[in-house]
Amino acid sequence: MAGILFIISAPSGSGKSTLVSELRKQVGGVDFSVSWTTRAPRGSEAHGREYNFATREQFERMIEAGVFLEYAQVFGSYYGTARQALEDARAAGHDLLLDIDVQGAAQVRARMPEAVSIFVLPPNPKVLRTRLRNRSRAEGVVNEEEVYRRLSEASKEIENYREYGYILVNDILDRAVAQLEAIVLAERFYRNGEAIAYRSRRVLEVAAACLQSNSQERLNPVLEAFGILGSSGQQQFNFGEDSDEEDSVDNHEGTNDD
Ligand code: ADP
Ligand code: 5GP
Fold this sequence. Notes:
Layout: E1 5-9, H1 16-26, E2 30-32, E3 36-37, E4 52-53, H2 56-64, E5 68-74, E6 77-82, H3 83-92, E7 95-99, H4 102-111, E8 116-121, H5 125-138, H6 144-158, E9 166-169, H7 173-192, H8 200-209, H9 216-225
Parallel strand pairs: 1-7, 1-8, 2-7, 3-4, 8-9
Antiparallel strand pairs: 3-6, 5-6
The structure holds adenosine-5'-diphosphate (ADP) and guanosine-5'-monophosphate (5GP).
């Protein structure tokens, strides 16, 4: 493709959809691939906007027909990216952003090693739980079972961070959005020689600081809180009082609630 392929993965509830929607408001020329899924629509989600919704039978027929660039089962439902998304972005000369899980990301990287991959982490399990609950509440009633399920998958997903080129810790939303924007602009600069209109040096510095190779210091407390860096080798969530996000209050502006 003429443009750059960006892959973004994160444990559910980390704020990936929020970051992507903020990025797209600020940076043009990035297409977003609307995935197919067999899970039920959440809250105000609409077919063709957040996802294309399908039954398992329809999805399996699409697999047989070779529709998907990648697909995986996540939380018991199928999710997949249609090849068409890549073709459309290529035809338009746009970059393409895939919001996919760690399994799908591995499939895409194997076929397209040039893809730029970004892993988003929540600062700690307590904040993640709060975000999952707030989102669930915004969609109706808090589904504790669903929150617990997504929370308990988080550590397993986080262990895959090493496969990703860039790491974002989504603590303060504005900062994480600025970092994501810097990564996109820096990659355009390095790969396509595209000029960065303003603050060019700063943008390149911000992006470089997010490279996985430069992120260990920021990462260690997050890994520790999720029980990934512990000496016992056992995964034990740290729900300590280290969160400044309040349960029940969606405490920032400009997010989506899908
Ligand atoms: P994901 O797409 O990773 O599953 P969402 O973007 O749906 O996550 O975010 C989950 C919840 O967390 C949403 O209610 C969103 O508004 C909120 N959220 C996202 N980023 C932040 C942030 N930096 N600070 C506070 N709340 C956030
Ligand atoms: P959610 O149900 O919270 O929207 O998404 C659950 C998980 O499925 C997230 O990790 C999200 O990145 C992932 N996902 C969404 N679309 C796709 C897709 O097309 N392919 C794969 N492999 N995962 C996806």
